[in-house]
Every structure is written in C-alpha cells, then in structure tokens.
Amino acid sequence: MTEPLLELRGLRKAYGAIVVTDDVNLSVLPGELHAIIGPNGAGKTTLIHQISGTLSSDSGRVLFDGEDITHLPMHGRVLRGLARSFQITSILPAFSALENVALAVQARSGSSFRFFGDAAQEKALNEAAMEYLSMVGLAPRARVAAGLLSHGEKRQLELAVGLATQPKLLLLDEPLAGTGHEESLRVVETLQRLKGRITIVLIEHDMDAVFSLADRVSVLVYGRVIATDSPESIRANEEVRAAYLGEEEVV
Amino acid sequence: MTATFFAIQALNGLQFGLILFLIAAGLTLVFGVMDFINLAHGVQYMVGAYLVAAFSAWTGSFGWGLILALPTALAFGLLLEILIFRHLYDRDHLDQVLATFGVILFLNQGVKFVWGAAPLSVPVPEILSGSVVIMDGLLYPVYRIAIIAAGLLVAALLYVVVSHTRVGMLVRAGASNAPMVSALGVNIRRLFMIVFGFGAMLAGFAGAMVAPILSVQPGMGDNILILAFVVIVIGGIGSIRGAFLAALLIGLVDTLGRSFAPNLLRLVLDPSAASQTGRALAPMLIYIFMAAVLFFRPSGLFPAKR
Amino acid sequence: MPTAARLDLVPVAIFAVFAAAPFLASASGAEGYVLSLLTRVMIFGIAAMALDLILGYGALVSFGHAAFFGIGAYAVGILASHGVEDALVQVPVALAASAFFAAVTGAISLRTKGVYFIMITLAFAQMLYFLASSLAAYGGDDGLTLPARSLVAGSDFLENDYALYGATLACLLGAYILLRAVVASRFGRVLRGTKENITRMEAIGFQPFSFQLTAYVISGMIAGLAGCLLANQAEFVSPAFMTWQRSGELIFMVVLGGLGSLHGAIIGAAAFLLMEEFLPEILHAAGFFLNDDLRWRLTENWQMVFGPILILIVLFARGGIVGLLRRGHHD
C-alpha cells in the first residue's frame, strides 16, 4: 500500500445550520486520476475550496505529501505542489496567454523580488511557458490577450497555468464546464496525456469524461462521501444509483 | 473642579459625537446600500449651515430658517443625485472619489461666489440662549443641550425607521446584499434616491444645528467629512448602529483627548514636554484609534456585509 | 509593434520639452516665473508617477500620498532648522523616513480592501497633517521658512533657479527610468497581476501582500523625494503640503494623464498645474461680455469651473490624456 499524496481526515464545513462538508475522509494516491462526482449542491466546489485553501475548514485535517497543510494559506499550498483551476475562469485578462503562464513559471523559478530586467524578455520563463501552452494545444494563440480568447481556450489556458506551477497534484474544478463539443474533446485529450504524469483530482459533471478518464471515483452526496471505488464498481453501486435517481440519467 | 471640567468636556464630546452621527448616518447608508463613496457628503453639511444662515436672516427667526432649510437641503441632495451621482453608481471607487472631489471644489467655491468668503454667523435662537446649571458649579449652554437632545431624537427615529419599516428593511437588506434586493423586484433606483436624499438632509440638518455655535464658512465640511469617514469605517460600513457607537466614541475620544492628554502625560513627562507632546498627540488620537480598530477588525466593528 | 514604438516617443517628447524649456524661459523675459512653474510641474510629476506605480499598476487607491510630500519636505525643513543643510544628509533621511512610514502604515492598510483601504490611507495622512500642525517648534500651522535651499556636498549651487530646475529634471528622469524598469521587471509583473486578479495570483503561489507592500514603500520613497524638492522650490515647508485635498489632486493628476503609463502621470501633473495657473486668466478673457463685477467674481472663483471640468473628465474621458493620444494613433 503506497502512502496517499493527499488525505482528508474528518473534514467539515458548515454555514450556520447547513453542513456543506460533513466528515469527509478521502485519500488520493500518487499518480492516479481521482474524480469526485455528485449531484448538484453536493458540496463539490466547497470541498475543492477547502483543499486548495480558499476556504478554511471548521474541523478535520488536510494532509498533503505527508505534511499537515490544514492551516496553510493558498499560496503556501501552491508552493508545496498543490495547484488548482477555477470553475469560473480566473485568468489575467489583460496579460497575453503566454504571460499568464510565464507568471506561473516565474512563481516557481527564482525570486520574484527582482526589480530590474524585463521579465517579458526572460527566455527561460517564456520557453517553459510555451511548452505548457503547447501541451494544452494553445501555442498558436500565445500572443493573444487572455481576455480575448474563446471560452474553451480560456479553460485550456487555466490548465496550462495550473501545470506551470509544477504541481504534484492538480485540482480541476469542472474543466469542461461551458465548453463546446470540440473544445471539450481537446481538454479530455490533454487530460489523457497528463494522466499518470501527475496526480489529478477532477470534479466534473460530464460523466462520459469522468468514466473514461478516472482511475477511481468518489461520490459526494449532501457533503458526505458515500462511495469510493473504480469507475465500473461505482456504475454498479446501488447507493449511488439511488442518489442520482431523478437527478440525471447518467449512470 | 476637575470633575466639573470633565463633565463639561464629556458633554461637549457627546454633542460633537451626535453631530458626527448625523453626518455619518447618511454616509454609511449611501456607502453600504449603493457602494458609492461620496466625498461630497461634507459639502451637504456646509450647504445646510449656509441655508439656515440665509433663511434665518431672511425670516428673522432661526426656527423658520431651520424649517425652510431642511426641505431645501433635501431637494438639493436629490438634485445632485439626479445630475451627477446616479451616473457614478456603476463606476469604480476611483472614479467616484474623483468626481465627488470635483463637486467639493465646485460647491466650496460656489458658496463663496454666492455669499462671499467671509464667515457668516447665525445668532443662537432667543429661547435657547443662556445656560443652565446641570449640577453644582456646572453651567452648560442650553443650545448645546438642545443639539444633544435633537441628535438623540434623530438617532432614535432613525433606529425605528431602519428596523421597523418597509423602507428600513429594504435599506438593511440592500446594505448586506444589494443585487438580491433588486432581484426581488424592488425599484432600486428609487430606493437609492430616497436613501441619498435623506442622507443629504441629515447632513444638512447637522450643519444647520451647528451654525449658531460655529462660524459658517466655505470648506467647513471638509474636515468633518474625514471624521465622518473615520466613524463609518470604525463602525462598519452600512451599519447605523456601528455609526452611532463609533460617532460617540470618536466624539468623546477627540474632545477628551484634546483636554486631558497633556494632563495625563504629565504623569510620565515633565510639564513642558507633556503639554507639547499632548498637544501633538491629541489630534492624532482618533486616527491611531481607527488604525487599531482596523488592525484587529479589517471591516470595522459591526460590518453589515458578510 | 509600430504602435508601441510610436508611443514611446511620447515620453521622449516630454523630456525633450523639459530639457529645452530653460532656454526658452530665458528668452521669454519672465524666466523666474516660468522656471518655478515648470519646476513645480516636474516635482508633482515625480509624486504622481510614484502614485501611479501603486494606483495604475497595483490598483491600490492611496488617498494619502500627500503625506509623503510632507515627510520629504519636513525632513528638509527640520534638519535645516538644526543646521543640517546638506542634501546628502537630508535626502537619505527623507527617504528612510518615507520608507518607514510607508512600511508601517502600508502593513496595516493592506490588511483592508477597497473602500477601507482608501479611507485608512487617508486617515494616516490626516494623522501626519495634524502632527505637523501641532509641531510648535517647527512653525505649527504656519509652517517653516527655510533659511536657504539645500547644499549639495557643501556647495550652494541650488540657489540658482536653473540649477534647481536641472536637479529636478534629473530626479524626474531618474524616477521615470527606475519606475519603468520596476514595472517591466519580475516584481512589476507580479504587481500588475495582483491588479488584474488577486485570487489568481494566490492560486499560482504568490503572496500578494508582500509585493503590494514593497510597491507601497517604493512609491512612498519616490514621493518623499518629491517632497524634498518641493521644500527647496518653495523654500518653505507647511502642513498644507499634506492636506487630503492635495492627496486628491495627486490622484486626479494620475487619472487625468492616464492610469498605468508613468509618463501619463507627468502629463497629468502638467495639465493640472497649468490649468490651475491659467484658468483664472482664461476665464477673465472668456468673460469679456460680462460686467466687471461678475467677471471679477468668475475669475476669483475659477474653481467653480475647475470642479465641473474634473467631473466631466471622469465621466467622459476614460484613459486620460494618454488614452486620447493612443486613440489618435489608431485612427
């Protein structure tokens, strides 16, 4: 049994009387693509916020790479190799696609307290950034201002930025949300290529994508993990079927 | 002797705090409900003072002057809202700061244009002149007591309106979540106008009340505006209760600080050094106080937004 | 690319004008007046550029930047009144004091956001204003007249208006080059990133606070330098240097010139001060059809025209003067 890369122990979050994350235990193994699914309002995004450090947890612990990161701020977690993408696209619109990624590369290579020298001309940063852009198929659009990219391209850019922080684990919050068919195929393809190279936690509504990509799937219902298993077993799981009944005809 | 002096200063502090509250109440609602930073709120206070000066000179009576000044201040506030401010609600804070700064320049000069640069004085109304003995050896001007009473009355009225009427409910809801209120189908524009107009009138009322004890002059609203901002930031933007408590705190801290800081420092410093540091320190007190509050509670004591 | 190259001509043109102005001034016959006006323009240009670093590139609306003017000016004034008249001591002291004030107040202010930040920077500046007003030993409300302009390494060449003009121009150029480099550097890129999307910057591993605070300190120091120059230009130091209206004017200069371009701030400062200087005369000329009393009153109350101009610029001229220039180029 290998040590999990990410482990959640008894994680909890409540807003007043409403418990959004209820005693969640979850372990993500190194190298796997672990999908988290659940009906709308199951608390998936809250959980991602708690893992990434956008939201604090009421109780419970988050362990990453053998270290307790429960009380680390987001940027501290990123520097330890835990990166995330956002469900609502969150890029720097006035920066070019290349600069968006180069900035993330910069965060991981040397001090950013350098006051001289044109950062936009730093070869090492730009070349690395270009590589990540090629990885998600955005290289031809490198010089375009990120705000002018299409929605699908922005999602790909998110992915490239996430990769550029050189994470051990990448949290993806609905990377396919709002993308067209073509674009979503391209994102899935990219994820397929990344799979095995880095550990990925994927939250996604598109069940076709989830079942084709995931090594393991956890099902979140009303803030609780009701099952964690291989995609095949999840498909066959009665409890999961019951939870999804009437929600959508997917399983 | 010291006890009497302290009591007088405490009353002065209370009176100053209530005036601050009248100004801050409108400011905090405008801020909280519309997310609009209005530097020109201070000139509304000045306009109130000028209006009462003009109307009481015209009618020969402070009472009539006040009665005429209030609706005029309200109308003036609404006019500014329609002409300028409503075009700024969607802008960022920077634009709002600049445009309302322009309004200040205009109006400070405008009153000079109309009434001249020399300060005007407004006589204390006959019935409220003189002093009364409050306690042994403590004589206090009746007019200042009237200001305290009026301030408390308005605070109480405001409390009732904000917590027990439909408009008040909308205002409170708007301060904590404006998009939600407009999603409920409330005419948000009209709500804004009402809040704005009454905020302007309250500031005008404050200006009118202090006109007999201060000199009415251009720019008189500038420094008190900054204090009102300190008040609402300490109190928590959008919170009437916060504004009330913070206004009293600031009024007392400022007034008592100025009177007693040199004396208190004498305990640790030699007299001449104490009086010098005291005089230097006293006006800074409220800003130090504000910095301390914000250091521990970055969104004030009673934040309305969550 | 050609647009970018053409745009770079604007700062070159600005500095060429400032370099040529003294020669024209001596020909104009009113050289003392022209030199002192332009020296003021450059001093405010330095301060406005400093503000542009945090306002235009970091989206931090500091409403208390005049405080640094005051710190720089009072450092010169207080040291001079104690017999320390050399700029080689005064300027480092002013910079250190500005840096200290910026670091302390910035660390507190940056914990807050939005409107609270605007207000708390304002409050800190007010605090300093009242402190200066109560310093009886240094003139209190009335301010402090300098015995003479600062010496430089023992030499009193700044007494010459041309020399002071030259020194100010050198500071302006130095500040421009320094800030231009900072903005393009790794540090500057992070700062610009925090302006666009602060959460994103955290999500890629930056702690915005330390970058914003550093920018605030740099900005404060440069504005402090402008304060040293202002004291020398006016040969006088007073609390009026740091009123909140002055802070507002600095913001206005930056916005008028065009946020986030540095040279825009210089243009904005020039436009503002020249407008302030000549608006009364323009109004006097434009009011020829009015009777004498009204015409005089209009000229006297030129701010009544200035205020609405400000409002109109905010409402209708987005991007400031630099924005207009840029649009002109595209057409």
3D structure, described in words:
The complex is a heterotrimer of chains A (251), B (306) and C (331). Chain A is 35% helix and 24% strand. Chain A is an alpha/beta fold and 251 residues long. Chain A has a 6-stranded mixed sheet, sandwiched between helices. In chain A, strand 9 and strand 10 (224-229) form a beta hairpin. Chain B contains 12 helices and 2 strands; from the N terminus they run H-H-H-H-E-E-H-H-H-H-H-H-H-H. Chain B has helices at residues 2-34, 41-59, 62-83, 93-115, 142-164, 166-176, 178-183, 188-210, 220-235, 240-265, 271-281, 285-296; strands at residues 131-135, 138-141. A two-stranded antiparallel sheet of chain B has the order 1-2. With 331 residues, chain C is an all-alpha fold. Chain C has one domain: Orthogonal Bundle (ABC transporter involved in vitamin B12 uptake, BtuC), CATH 1.10.3470. Chain C is globular, with a radius of gyration of 20 Å. The chains are: A alpha/beta (251), B mainly alpha (306), C mainly alpha (331). Chain B: It comes from Microvirga makkahensis. Chain B: The chain crosses the membrane at residues 6-32, 39-58, 64-85, 97-118, 138-162, 192-214, 226-253, 273-296. Chain B: It holds the Pfam family BPD_transp_2. Chain B: This is Branched-chain amino acid ABC transporter permease.
Number of strands of chain C: 2
Indicate how many domains the architecture of chain A comprises. Answer: 2
| Low-pLDDT regions of chain A | none
CATH class of chain C equals Mainly Alpha
Task: Report how far the terminal alpha carbons of chain C are from each other.
Answer: 16 Å
Query: Which term fits the overall shape of chain C?
Result: globular
- Separate helix tally of chain A: 9
The ordered string of helix (H) and strand (E) elements of chain C is: HHHHHHEHHHHEHHHHH
User: Percent of residues of chain A in beta strands?
Assistant: 15-25%
Instruction: Compute the separation of the termini of chain A in Å.
Output: 30 Å
Percent of residues in helices of chain A: 25-40%
Widest β-sheet, arrangement of strands of chain A: 6-7-8-3-9-10
Largest sheet features of chain A: 6 strands, mixed
The string of secondary-structure elements of chain A, in order, is EEEHEEHEHHHEHEHEEHH
Report the mean per-residue pLDDT of chain C as an integer. Answer: 89
What would CATH call the class of the largest domain in chain A? Alpha Beta
Number of strands of chain A: 10
Protein name (chain B): Branched-chain amino acid ABC transporter permease
Keywords (chain B): Amino-acid transport, Cell membrane, Membrane, Transmembrane, Transmembrane helix, Transport
Membrane topology (chain B): Multi-pass membrane protein
Family (chain B): Belongs to the binding-protein-dependent transport system permease family. LivHM subfamily.
